[in-house]
UniProtKB/TrEMBL annotation:
GO terms for biological process: defense response to virus. Keywords: Antiviral defense. This is Type I-A CRISPR-associated protein Cas7/Csa2. It comes from the Archaea. NCBIfam families: cas_MJ0381, DevR_archaea. InterPro entries: Cas7/Cst2/DevR_sub_I-a/Apern, CRISPR-assoc_Cas7/Cst2/DevR, CRISPR-Cas7/Cst2/DevR. Coiled coil: none annotated. It comes from Metallosphaera prunae. The keyword NADP does not apply.
Length: 323
């Protein structure tokens, strides 16, 4: 399992909008609970970027890499329509027989996985007469401001713009406002690479040798796609609001047991993650712990193996999953 937390300094971004109110395009916000140095807990509304947005970016990165590696991806998935075999119309397009009953769920799951590596890694839900679900092997939460001190390092501001033309009529000119955010963000994610290419539903085994044969390539593609998260290649409205984004620090662990690293809210989150992973190894009778870090903030990284950039981290992860 690969677990990671990252801290980004992001200035002037509109990576995740919600509904427009009049001529104002709003940035997504969410309530968070934080504890002040005086001891009381308070609620603050802050700019955030949703896990749905990040997961979509990750899966589209996986599409690009899968195509280069010759792995199967459906036409709808290539176009960013991640409905993933949700109904019978999609099954007809891909020539997949719907599940006859609960005993046929495993056969159906394998057929879908063989058609689309994104459905394998990102999961799917067939909602027909006999529903079949495969849980995502990639998990990610909201990207929220780092809660390091009483003063949350985040702010929203609406920027004024005008679409203007000298020769246009008055009605064709427009005033609009886009709400942009700046924050020291942190985000956490998991990739359960041990379950990629492995069916999860009960039933009779069929075509699973074919899955096993290409499982290593699917795991490799999934790890390579993490590069997009580590370099900030996600979010919307980038054409005119490409953010000033800097990766400040990160911690990633590779373990053979379930483990989640510390979120990037404290300055010792890298050191603490490594120490916890080593102790969890003993508790859960694991055999493997590797911790990698990027440190551009002068943090205490403990005994984590420090890398200079995301490229070195992904190379190290690939080496670990390839054994």
């Amino acid at each position: 399992m690969i677990s990671g937390s990252v801290r980004f300094l992001v200035n002037v971004e509109s990576l995740n909008g919600v509904e427009s109110v009049g001529n104002l395009s709003r940035h997504r916000t969410a309530p968070i609970v934080t504890r002040k140095s005086t001891g009381e807990y308070v609620i603050r509304y802050v700019p955030v970027i949703s896990g749905e947005s990040l997961a979509h970016a990750y899966q589209m990165a996986l599409v690009e890499i899968a195509e280069k590696m010759g792995l199967p991806v459906t036409h709808r998935t290539k176009q960013g329509e991640l409905i993933k075999f949700a109904n019978d119309d999609v099954l007809k397009e891909e020539n997949i027989a719907s599940p006859k009953d609960e005993k046929d769920a495993r056969r159906f799951e394998v057929d879908v996985m063989l058609k689309d590596v994104v459905a394998d890694v990102g999961g799917f839900m067939y909602a027909g007469k006999n529903p079949v679900r495969r849980s995502s092997k990639f998990s990610v939460g909201y990207m929220i401001p780092s809660l390091k001190t009483d003063e949350i390092p985040a702010q929203l501001e609406a920027q004024f713009h005008v679409r203007y033309s000298v020769v246009s009529s008055k009605d064709e000119q427009a005033i609009y406002n886009v709400e942009v955010g700046s924050a020291l963000y942190t985000v956490s994610f998991l990739l359960d690479d041990g379950l990629i290419g492995v069916p999860s539903n009960p039933g009779k085994a069929d075509k699973e040798d074919e899955l096993l044969r290409i499982r290593g390539a699917r795991v490799e593609a999934s790890v390579r796609a993490l590069y997009h998260l580590l370099t900030g290649n996600f979010g919307a409205k980038r054409s005119r609001f490409l953010p000033q984004l800097e990766l400040k620090s990160a911690v990633l662990t590779v373990t053979d047991f379930p483990f989640v690293v510390e979120p990037g809210h404290s300055d010792d989150y890298i050191k603490l993650s490594h120490e916890r992973a080593e102790r969890a190894k003993s508790i859960l009778m694991g055999k493997k712990v590797k911790t990698f870090a990027i440190n551009r903030e002068g943090l205490d990284t403990g005994k984590a193996e420090v890398k200079s950039n995301p490229e070195e981290v992904v190379e190290a992860l690939l080496k670990e999953v390839k054994g």
